Every structure is written in structure tokens, then in C-alpha cells.
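I would like you to sit down with the pair of lines that follows and say whether C-alpha cells and residues agree.
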Amino acid sequence: MFDAKLETAKIIQFIKDYFDNNRLYGAIIGLSGGKDSTIAAALMVEALGKDRVTGVTLPCHSKSEDATDAKRIANHLGIEVINFDLTKTFDTFKEGMAEFVGDEKECINSDINLKPRLRMAALYYLSALYSAKKAKTYIVVGTSNKSEIFVGYYTKGGDSVSDIRPLGDLSKEEVVMIGDYLNLPYDLVHKTPSDGLSALSDEEKMGVSYLDIAKYMEDPSLLEEKTRDKIRHLHESSLHKLHTATYQKDQ
């Protein structure tokens, strides 16, 4: 049985220990307005204090309500929030690639994945900038949870990149329980998960539910064969995202 109070305390201590042991000071976190970034930001504030956490909104042809929700959680937590609009950057990149593009339909996946890669570049730029300006080390917080990581629902070189993952060993359902325990805004904690980049929810894009992913990670036999096969396929076909194939010389 998942104990949200106990796990919250453990995660907070984990963050404190990591920052102390590595002589780190601050955290930069992208705020999407979704539950994962909302809860990850709250845990960082609990561990470090609001003055050491900076939230960043990174709109890029995305829904305006996502930025509004992100600012809401920043205000709720009392943290600084920076807005860096990547729309023009994205458009400039696309213009530069135009000569290589034939059918725009072939670019759909490339376009979707470009956005989180641009966002991560911005977050790392800001972490280096803050480290220089304040002469104290800032790092980038990852917001992916265990369910997403297991099925590869993230962008390689984008939201897969971070310096610390407070939610990395929690299923989506466990993340929600921690959000409720921390008494964060209910509508944000229970917001339908979406990447904010397409018109579909996470579950619609994956073709499976987060609850079924959690069941699979616990015991695949809990699921019917069709669902089990789908999740296994997602997991196995995304393993390349976890490790970079590296040639090793004979010893």
C-alpha cells in the first residue's frame, strides 16, 4: 500500500541530501501546467525553500491555458516564474529546415519532438546563467514519472534530460496521491495528462491507460492479453532511449 506521507518525506530528504552532498544551491524547473511539473515543483520547494526554486514557462504553439495553470502553481508555491516564449525560435528552425521537407505530414513527429528539445535547451541555458549570476550552482529538475519512463513516453534529448528526477520511481497514480497529500490545487493535480503539443491526451496517444501501465509494472498477468502485449511492445521498442549504444574494445 502506497503511503503518500511517508514517500513524500523520503523524496524531500532525497532532494536535500543530493543538494547538500553535491554542494548545489538552486533548481530550474519547466512548468507545463500539468500534474507532474506541479508536484515536482512543490517537492523541490518543500526541500529547498521557495527562494531556491525558479519555474519557467516555455510556450511554443501551445495552449494558453497551460501557461495560465503554470503561473497559478508558481504563485501558489510563491516561486519566481520566468516566461520564455519559444514560438519564434521554433518557427525559425522550421524555416531553416524547409528545403529538406517534402510532405509536411512526414514532419509531424519531428515537430512534436523539437518542442521539448528546445525547452530543455532553454532550461539548461537558464541553469548555467543563474549559476553564473549568483555564483551558486543551479540544476535542472526532471518531471517524468516511472510510468512514462517505462513505456518511453518522453522525448530523447528533450524531457528525458535532467539532473534530478524526484518523480522518477513513482507511477502516475502515486504522483497524484502525493499531490493530494501536499494539498495542491485539485484541478491541477487531477488534470487530464497531455503533452500540450498535440490535441490528444497522453493515454489517447499511447493507446493504453496509466492505470494499466502501473498494473503491468506490478504484475503483467493482471491485464488481458491485448493490453499486456501493447504495453510490452511500448516498453521494448523504447529501450534504446535509456542507453546509448557504445562500442567497447576487447579487453
